[in-house]
Automatic annotation (TrEMBL):
It comes from the Eukaryota. GO terms for biological process: sensory perception of chemical stimulus. InterPro entries: 7TM_GPCR_serpentine_rcpt_Sre. The lineage of its organism: Eukaryota, Metazoa, Ecdysozoa, Nematoda, Chromadorea. This is G protein-coupled receptor. Belongs to the nematode receptor-like protein sre family. GO terms for cellular component: membrane.
Length: 186
């Protein structure tokens, strides 16, 4: 997930640089003066790509923050769920049966944990898992930790704070994009 996040950030950075330095041929505004339509970064195709990449980056960050996704979870499940089938004898067959029974009980629980972690990362499904006051407490704690990290680092962050079910993650470009779409269809 972190590799996907890094790749999406690099693609977005490349697309931002490309759209600012070179106008796209697909924009159709090649012969019209720049002052009439603004700069080339308002090209609708690159704008929609940048918006999609921005959403992908946001979703990747939210999924990376999920506490149930651990680095060693999958190898641990493989070791438990796939017993050693190659070295058993008549005397140790009962150990194999116990391992199979244990893995049959463990797989639905791990699946449920994965589903809950994905549901926790999506804002609209959180109230189905936990009460609202627990979610508010978790969000407040996360915001305090982020503020503490910002104070320690003393660096400006590129991404704004995102609260649940808010439109704060949408930028000015998003408003322009939807305004252009609305103007096209009306």
């Amino acid at each position: 997930m972190k590799n996907l996040l890094r790749q999406n950030e690099m693609r977005l950075e490349h697309l931002n640089e490309r759209s600012v330095t070179r106008p796209s041929v697909s924009s159709g505004f090649g012969k019209v003066p720049k002052k009439f339509f603004g700069d080339s970064s308002k090209d609708m195709y690159t704008l929609s790509l940048r918006l999609q990449l921005d959403e992908n980056i946001w979703c990747c960050k939210v999924l990376c923050e999920s506490k149930l996704w651990k680095k060693y979870k999958l190898p641990f499940e493989v070791l438990i769920c796939v017993p050693q089938l190659f070295s058993y004898t008549r005397d140790t067959i009962w150990i194999l049966m116990i391992l199979i029974m244990f893995s049959n009980l463990l797989i639905p629980n791990c699946t449920l944990a994965c589903e809950l972690s994905i549901a926790w990362s999506l804002d609209k499904l959180r109230p189905l898992i936990f009460p609202a006051f627990l979610i508010a407490r978790h969000e407040a704690k996360r915001q305090r930790e982020q503020r503490g990290r910002k104070k320690r680092n003393r660096k400006a962050t590129y991404f704004k704070e995102i609260s649940a079910d808010s439109d704060s993650r949408y930028s000015r470009e998003t408003d322009e994009y939807f305004h252009q779409l609305y103007a096209q269809w009306n």
